[in-house]
Prior knowledge:
- By secondary structure, this protein is mainly beta.
- It has a single domain, classed as Elongation Factor Tu (Ef-tu), domain 3, CATH 2.40.30.
- The protein is built from one helix and nine strands; from the N terminus they run E-E-E-E-E-E-H-E-E-E.
- This is Head decoration protein.
Amino acid sequence: xxxxxxxxxxxxxxxxxxxxxxxxxxxxxxxxxxxxxxxxxxxxxxxxxxxxxxxxxxxxxxxxxxxxxxxxxxxxxxxxxxxxxxxxxxxxxxxxxxxxxxxxxxxxxxxxxxxxxxxxxxxxxxxxxxxxxxxxxxxxx
Length: 141
């Protein structure tokens, strides 16, 4: 069997675009310090009356989009203001990470918008962390 070489993916130079239907709300990568899509999958097991009677399968992935960003309540159209103005609304997100110029990876998905917190420790940059439920699974290209 051949040894498969590994080429770790470095997530950098990302682009985060948000749309409300056909309306482009903007790109927000300058405000983002972390953007992670995480699937959750459960294993389902059924055990019959004998040891050999076992059924196992997995559930369909349920995705969550975790986002950390600098709070900006002053700039019109900032990520903080977009998330707050669209709380509870399904928006389309396109997240592209560019590990190398030759191999960008893009995920497009729909998530329920969750507003971020307001405020922080005195004397620090106010950062917000939100976790948004994904309602339409990511399509990777």
